[in-house]
What does this fold into?
Amino acid sequence: MRTQSDLTRRSCEPCEGGVPPLEADAAQQLLEALHADWSMSDDGKWIRRVYDFSGFSRTIGFVNAAAWIANTEGHHPDLEVSYRRCVVNYTTHAIDGLSENDFICAAKIDRLVPA
It folds into this structure.
């Protein structure tokens, strides 16, 4: 079983399609390596976590750091940003489902906030 630190040591591989999305069992194992607040859609196509903050400046600081990780990895989440909250959604659009890249980036973003 992989751990969060196993994921954070890895880098994303470019994905332009042509490969299948992760099987449900593989995605579930990777999900278990993340913080317990991550959830997976019933159809196994995306993962999501809601981050709550004490104010707008902390939210935006998190968003900027998450954006830096996304640009560095070349794998970008969908972000929903509000005053004290950011919802992070990961999927690999090119394959219409989950890839290991989604879990790698999720693990790296988790390091931005205290457990």
In short: The longest strand covers residues 47-52. The CA atoms of residues 90 and 108 lie 12 Å apart. The radius of gyration is 13 Å.
